[in-house]
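Re: weekly structure request thread

Next one in the queue (116 aa):
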Amino acid sequence: MLVIEDDQGIGKMLVALLTAEGYRPTLVADGAAALAAVRRLQPALITLDLSLPNMDGVEILERLDDGADRRVPVVILSAYTDRLTALHRARAAAVLTKPFEIDNLLACLSTALDGP
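Done, posted below.
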């Protein structure tokens, strides 16, 4: 699982939570580095913040649709979900607006991993 989040506090919290739930998360805090990490790690799922340095989450989401990465479920976690078009929302396995409920996040992750 790849966690793309530039806020250090939220990133650490997500990694700790996901690790406690039995996932093996990798944290990336930079938009440009995130794409390289996706290709290198081939994660089963991505959590994606939209407000990132060097490349925003919307661009990452669009670039993921360019190749084999389009099959990776993406759960968007952002305070800026109003930036998303209907197509972006359709691409995402789930969209959660920060602040989000932990139980909702875990349910979304489970559903996305069990997906079609």
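The radius of gyration is 13 Å. The helical segments are 8-20, 31-41, 57-64, 86-91, 102-114.
Next request, please.
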